[in-house]
């Protein structure tokens, strides 16, 4: 079956005064239909660059040096601007950390939910009914009245629910959720995660879920991709990756504070050292300078080492780390 999203060998550079900054190097990932794939990595690992590339909304100094991005087999990098607008308006929905990114402050919620159904052949009354029903589904009290409210009249949690309701109303093929719960308190976060799970099962879309929270990824996702300094360094089924990581970076994240897996602390554990300079990344393993296991061999670039099932890690010692 064709993957909903397929990213292959994606390399993105930013032009900077110091030279080309290699924000993504040879990143590959697949999101199969109906699955939830998580992406985890510390700040600067390239998550935003990846999302912008997926949406083909990149800053002027960005350049896709190589690779392919396919939505159900259709190449997005070569797609025309009009086709991309169509895809973004219907097939790819995004829920951002700050719901105001996707809500228009000067339009009522009802108007925005009406507009998002622009391609549906429904009457205005029917669209309004569908919108209210969706607001009810995401747990907003008094949904019909909320349609006449402006975004600033709602709380942050309510706005995020509206953003999710709007995304789901699109019935997208791919939903990209970019840290959608990071700004919310823990109780709300649980509710939003439950909601995403439920709606995903209902509409059957694939989800790419970006988060700093290892616990949330563990709870929500089928698979996880761990990113470090512009590279996907490990990927596999969530339980397998978190229980038996094959990359020392993943192992370190988990080892630094295993309690976080349960308590969902909002930040990734900090591990000693800094990200490498991406205008001049080290040859060989990208994690070498921060890794306890670094050896002479790590001066050469590791290949993917296959572990159990569809689990791999980009480390010469993956089999030992995982054991
Ligand atoms: N427009 C830009 N020009 C130059 N460098 C950039 C630009 N945008 C991002 N970068 C650099 O690219 C690298 C990846 O950044 P990116 O924002 O994708 O990471 P991130 O994982 O999303 O981090 P965060 O969680 O902090 O947003 C970083 O080194 C960042 O400084």
UniProtKB/TrEMBL annotation:
It is found in: Cell inner membrane. The keyword Membrane applies. InterPro entries: AAA+_ATPase (IPR003593), ABC_Ni/Peptide_Import (IPR050388), ABC_transporter-like_ATP-bd (IPR003439), ABC_transporter-like_CS (IPR017871), Oligopep_ABC_C (IPR013563), P-loop_NTPase (IPR027417). It is a peripheral membrane protein. One of its GO terms (molecular function) is ATP hydrolysis activity. GO terms for biological process: peptide transport; transmembrane transport. CDD domains: ABC_NikE_OppD_transporters (cd03257). Belongs to the ABC transporter superfamily. This is ABC transporter ATP-binding protein. The lineage of its organism: Bacteria, Pseudomonadati, Pseudomonadota, Alphaproteobacteria, Rhodobacterales.
